[in-house]
Amino acid sequence: MNKNIVERLNIYKKFFKILIDYARVNISFSITYVSLLMLDSFAKIFSIISMAPLVDFLSGDNVGTQQITLFFKDTLSWFGFEYTLGSSIAVFIIGSSLGLLTEIFLYSVSRRNAYKLQYHFISSGIKRFFGQGLKFINSQSFGVIQNTFQREISQAGDGVNEILLFVSNIVQVLFMLALAFSLSVVMSSITLLILFLIFIIMYSSSSSLIERLSTKTTISGNDVSQALFEPLLNAKQILSFGRSKHAINNHSKVYERHANDAVLSQTITYSIPLIFRTFGIIVALVAMYISLSFGESPSAVVIALVALIRITPIASQIVASLASISAAVPSLNQFELLFGYIFQKQKQKQLISFDGFSDKIQLNNVSYSHGTAKNSVVDINMTIKKNSYVSFIGPSGSGKTTCIDILIGLLRPSSGHVSIDRDLLEEVDLDSFLAHVGYVQQTPFLFNGSIRDNLLWSNPSATEKEMWDALHLANIDSFVSSTEYQLDTSVGDRGVSMSGGQKQRIALALALVRHPSILVLDEATNSLDYESESSVIKALDKISHKVTIISISHQPSMAKNSDYVFVFNEGEIVESGTYDNLIDSKNSFLYKMKHK
Ligand SMILES: Nc1ncnc2c1ncn2[C@@H]1O[C@H](COP(=O)(O)OP(=O)(O)O)[C@@H](O)[C@H]1O
Ligand SMILES: [Mg+2]
């Protein structure tokens, strides 16, 4: 039990720390919010005590409220008004309207803040997602990432916002309690004591239950995302295997489990403040009965009753906040597990800006593991001179793609290092280096938009002529000019309106239109027919020795025109040399690959 309380306090501390760090970076918000909160608290008090003259007037009793009523009388006469039923009602109307206005205003500010907080979470999530690099991205399950951005982040943001509401509601309750106590000690003490007991009982019985249920909801939420979006994004695979019913059933099963978890935890979270509110009013009425029999002034007791009844919804808000924070814990945990603490200062290493490739790229004793027991590339040494044309040849799974991802800095070697010209690649600002690289991936990706959109995405300053030149080099220009809308032809979502070969050649044009110093083609002729393949090879010949070309393939013939070949097998470079030298030797790996 004790340990439980400490753990719980630590959770609130965690959310509170985020709130404080957030307030630090949003000073103007903090000042606005605190001032509004104070204004609202005073307005609430004012709206309650503005009932005093009215109650006095109606009951003829002003034993307990004399001073308040006197204050209003003085104020009224200062403005030249008499103390009448009419002016008492007017005071009450003004008091309530003021309370209403500040409350609405405070609510709107706090909603705006909730969105801002959520945006903080999302934007820092996106930044960290890209910032952690390809290894992290490769190792994540799609459902977890999707669900984190879709659901968990807003839950975590709500948790922090609830801490803010919690603190402001406590402030307001203290104000109101002070008022209630000053009017009726007996009634306020009884109410406070009983409500506190109810609070402790409800809180201790529910919060760990809510947290457990929310953890289940988070996990099943991850599963729902996976079960929904994986089939949607791979619809062709699903359709061609005739497995759409299976996908639908699978989703429905996971969804039902998620809904059950969520409904239960939401119902509990929802009903706690309701129970509290109902009990609050009952308790206050009973306390009123007792304090009247103790002989307290009826007019004071009435006003105190109003104050206590006004406290109940705020107090139940406090209880609700605690429940929501418990519900947000698993979401915050998932966020921090993926991306770390939201306001963590990122270590800014001073990186060298890369301003042009001048000499060579070198890999020294590079090994890499994708997190599996076996290294995917082992002790690679290679030098690639500027403007040379090299090939990586090797069977599928031999480590070619992994090696190129290391070479261009997308993956950090587990051991060894990569250098570019005279600098270590890890000390170079990666985006500035990649601006000089054109990479045609094994499975190329096109954005939903026109061919022009895609080319401009790759090189925002490309001119019309540069675009056509790139398309021409990639041997796709005649296809584009044969279409009705030319450069404005849509490629469809993820390029679905194009054939595999067209898509691959547009991807090549995307790489070429940025005038790369280093052009990387990973199985770029994979989905091309013989004719298109030879025209791509011709295109490479056209630019060879003007740019550095690294061409990757499982087909030995693709290496024919290159200056130098690195042959990969099981993660190692088993041989290297010119194509002719290697292929001439009947013992060479390359020869055996070709004649298998
Ligand atoms: N994201 C990944 N996670 C785990 N293992 C991977 C990942 N990507 C590649 N591998 C493994 O690394 C090895 C080399 O893969 P890869 O570099 O893609 O080979 P190639 O491009 O030559 O076909 C393979 O055994 C493959 O299973
Ligand atoms: Mg590959």
CATH topology of the largest domain: ABC transporter transmembrane region fold
By CATH, the architecture of the largest domain is named: Up-down Bundle
Mean pLDDT: 86
What percent of residues adopt helix (DSSP H or I)? 55-70%
The dominant shape is elongated
CATH class of the largest domain: Mainly Alpha
Distance between the termini: 70 Å
Please indicate the percent range of residues in DSSP E strands (runs of 2 or more): 5-15%
Bound molecules: adenosine-5'-diphosphate, magnesium ion
Overview of the structural elements:
It is a single chain. The chain is α/β, with parallel strands linked by helices. It folds into 2 domains: 12-339, ABC transporter transmembrane region fold; 360-594, P-loop containing nucleotide triphosphate hydrolases (Rossmann fold), CATH 3.40.50. The chain is built from 20 helices and 10 strands. The protein has helices at 2-25, 27-49, 52-59, 66-78, 85-131, 133-139, 142-183, 185-233, 235-240, 244-293, 298-339, 400-407, 430-434, 451-458, 464-473, 477-482, 500-512, 530-543, 579-584, 589-594, and strands at residues 360-368, 377-385, 389-393, 415-420, 423-424, 437-440, 518-522, 548-553, 564-569, 572-577. Strands 6-7-8-3-9-10 form a 6-stranded mixed sheet, with helices on both faces. A 4-stranded antiparallel sheet has the order 2-1-4-5, covered by helices on one side. A hairpin with an 8-residue loop joins β1 and β2 (377-385). α2 (27-49) runs parallel beside α7 (142-183), α8 packs antiparallel against α10 and α10 (244-293) packs antiparallel against α11. It is elongated. The two termini are 70 Å apart. The model has no long low-confidence stretch (mean pLDDT 86). Adenosine-5'-diphosphate is lined by residues 138, 370, 372, 376, 394, 396-402.
